[in-house]
């Protein structure tokens, strides 16, 4: 596999990881618990995420509500929110910087050393994102 193909494969893997992190930040399944009443009809599954809490009843009905206040949340949820936002921002900048530094793009073709340094900077951003 040539250098350009390896570079493209690495970029696609990093992009896939960033998209997965975006999905993980948005989904409310960070903490799950359940409650079953006296009968199976009253079973409720509780899901709590960074941005909302959801209750899924055994009938298939799901009710979600956004967290009311940032200050009312536990410290670990506030910290997780901040770290996920920072991670997603670093990954977004890594996506942009890496595209500029790749060999298959035309931006900055006149100086290959600078182009390779830009690609390394994009990779560093992806590592920091992780």
Automatic annotation (TrEMBL):
Whether Transmembrane helix counts among this entry's keywords is: yes
Q: According to its UniProt entry, what is the function of this protein?
A: Claudins function as major constituents of the tight junction complexes that regulate the permeability of epithelia.
Please give the Gene Ontology molecular function terms for this protein: structural molecule activity
Q: Which family does it belong to?
A: Belongs to the claudin family.
Which residues span the membrane? 82-102
According to its record, what are the GO cellular component terms? bicellular tight junction; plasma membrane
Q: How does it sit in the membrane?
A: Multi-pass membrane protein
Its localization reads:
Cell junction, Tight junction; Cell membrane
- Entry-linked Gene3D superfamilies: 1.20.140.150
The cross-references to InterPro entries, in alphabetical order and at most eight, read: Claudin, Claudin_CS, PMP22/EMP/MP20/Claudin
Superkingdom in the source lineage: Eukaryota
Keywords carried by this UniProt record:
Cell junction, Cell membrane, Membrane, Tight junction, Transmembrane, Transmembrane helix
Q: What is this protein called?
A: Claudin
Q: PANTHER family attached here?
A: CLAUDIN
The reply to whether Repeat figures as a keyword in the UniProt entry is no
């Amino acid at each position: 596999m040539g250098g350009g193909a390896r570079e493209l494969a690495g970029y696609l893997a990093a992009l896939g990881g960033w998209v997965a992190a975006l999905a993980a930040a948005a989904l409310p399944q960070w903490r799950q618990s359940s409650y079953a009443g006296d009968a199976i009809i009253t079973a409720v599954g509780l899901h709590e995420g960074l941005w909302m809490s959801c209750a899924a009843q055994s009938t298939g009905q799901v009710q979600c509500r956004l967290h009311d206040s940032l200050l009312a949340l536990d410290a670990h949820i506030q910290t997780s929110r901040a770290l996920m936002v920072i991670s997603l921002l670093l990954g977004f900048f890594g996506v942009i910087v890496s595209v500029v530094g790749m060999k298959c793009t035309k931006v900055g073709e006149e100086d290959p050393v600078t182009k390779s340094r830009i690609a390394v900077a994009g990779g560093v951003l992806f590592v920091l994102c992780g």
